[in-house]
Amino acid sequence: AQGGEAGGHRSLLDDEGELIGVAQALNHAEGSYGPGDEPIAAGIAAHAAVALKRARLLADRVARAALEREL
Q1: Average pLDDT over residues 36-62
Q2: pTM of the model
Q3: What is the chain's Cα-based Rg?
């Protein structure tokens, strides 16, 4: 999922709308960014948000499993 953008920033939002990160595009290899770059940035931001959410869920699951083994 993605959020709004301002000044080259794109909010990374999870499926509940919670902010989980921010992406920023700094330099373009040739000239400046154009309108065709926006859908690409949005797609990358959406995939990054999903990956971050999954990584956090997995880390929580591993921690919970370790705690259960200790009990």
Answers
A1: 90
A2: 0.70
A3: 16
